[in-house]
Amino acid sequence: MEVILRTKDLTKKYDNRVVVDNLNLEIRKGEVFGLLGPNGAGKSTTMNMICDIVKPTLGSVEFMGKDFRKNRKELVKKLGYIPQDLAIHGNLKAWENVELFTSLYGIKGEELKAAIEESLEYVGLSERRGDYAKSFSGGMKRRLNIACAIGHHPELLIFDEPTVGIDPQSRNFILSKIKESNQNGATIIYTSHYMEEVEAICTRIAIMDNGKIIACGTSQELKRLVTKNEEDVSLEEVFLTLTGKKLRDY
Ligand SMILES: Nc1ncnc2c1ncn2[C@@H]1O[C@H](COP(=O)(O)OP(=O)(O)OP(=O)(O)O)[C@@H](O)[C@H]1O
Ligand SMILES: [Mg+2]
Fold first, then answer.
1. Distance between CA atoms of 247 and 38, rounded to whole angstroms?
2. Nearest listed ligand to the Cα of residue 17
3. Is 169 inside any structural domain?
4. Which residues have beta carbons under 5 A from ligand 2 (an ion)?
5. pTM of the model
6. Which residues are near ligand 1 (CB < 6 Å)?
7. What's the pLDDT at 116?
8. pLDDT per residue over 28-42, tens digit each?
9. Ligand 1: which of 20, 35, 43 to mutate, judged by most atoms within 8 Å of the beta carbon?
10. Does the chain have fewer CB atoms within 10 Å around its N or its C terminus?
């Protein structure tokens, strides 16, 4: 299967503390790849390095067969990043937020107008297009955050914890939209510490802890690492067995 993104020995240190440790990931074209790990595992730092927002201490990222940093201008247009920390502006209207981000990719005029409408429609915010983002609920802000990253029709979409702190209805809406984007041809990287979500939408899952990938495979393959009968265990238990830690503190 064709590899769309590859990290090579990707490493980040802060003050000599290794937070991402020599990561060699391969994301295959057309898959929904889940990165599952507890708070502080290094998921967001990894995504920020993949998108060239954080500079790696060591290593590199290859996207569509080319070095990302060296071909940033060309490759960034094929990538959509939905960051964990909302990137929207409260004092801009919903459509103005989408315009701001979509225009960064060089989309203009009628094409830009159409992209704004399409993106707002996609996340179910068309009717609130003229409202200020600061007036939105948490779930609506998350949806607007997604609209800002899809107007340029990226081939790879990276979602960093897109469902944190929102109601179940918005959560289900977002998960169904991610599946739909994948069915429409986009490759997805999905980062979460919610095991159920990762299991529901991801074709392959990497379990990350302390900056390292400790296991990678389908949900069934991961469960087989700890048991002969995968129906006996949850991914939560796989994580506990492999790391001696709970995935989440309740
Ligand atoms: N700018 C920074 N300076 C210093 N340390 C940082 C910085 N950014 C992240 N870290 C540290 O790197 C580690 C990994 O953080 P990161 O945000 O990547 O984890 P995460 O897996 O995304 O966690 P969460 O599930 O809470 O979002 C943490 O210990 C964090 O404190
Ligand atoms: Mg994070």
1. 5
2. 1
3. yes
4. 43-44, 84
5. 0.94
6. 14, 19, 37, 39-45, 84, 161, 193
7. 97
8. 999 999 999 988 999
9. 43
10. C
